[in-house]
């Protein structure tokens, strides 16, 4: 009976040891698979971090370019604004000069009209004197 029980226990022990070995093998395989997955994820993380760094650099470069362009446009706008102000000032001076010239022409025209009228009266007087005096000066 003892021998039979011992034999039965040995067989059961062998079965359990075999199951233990199988479980340990499966566990080692799972650990290996998990380690491979961890390494794969680490590589993926590294690649993504590199891409993120590249994108940040590209964005910073793009922002720098936009800032420079904006500064250039701002400088151009300031220059154009100054030119516009100068042109408005020049226009104002030209308009004032034009008004003065028009006023001068108006006065000269009035003066010419007055002189023309005086000349007409003088001619009329000369005709009248000639008619009255015959050959007088």
From TrEMBL:
Keywords: Coiled coil. Residues 6-97 form a coiled coil. The keyword Coiled coil applies. This is LEKR1 protein. The lineage of its organism: Eukaryota, Metazoa, Chordata, Craniata, Vertebrata.
């Amino acid at each position: 009976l003892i021998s039979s029980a011992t034999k039965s226990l040995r067989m059961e022990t062998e079965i359990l040891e075999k199951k233990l070995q199988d479980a340990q093998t499966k566990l080692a395989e799972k650990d290996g698979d998990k380690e491979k997955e961890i390494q794969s994820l680490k590589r993926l993380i590294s690649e993504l971090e590199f891409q993120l760094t590249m994108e940040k650099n590209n964005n910073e470069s793009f922002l720098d370019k936009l800032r420079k362009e904006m500064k250039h446009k701002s400088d151009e706008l300031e220059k154009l604004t100054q030119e516009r102000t100068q042109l408005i000032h020049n226009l104002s001076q030209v308009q004032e000069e034009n008004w003065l010239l028009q006023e001068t022409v108006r006065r000269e025209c009035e003066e010419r009209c007055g002189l023309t009228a005086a000349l007409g009266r003088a001619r009329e007087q000369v005709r009248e004197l000639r008619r009255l005096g015959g050959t007088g000066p």
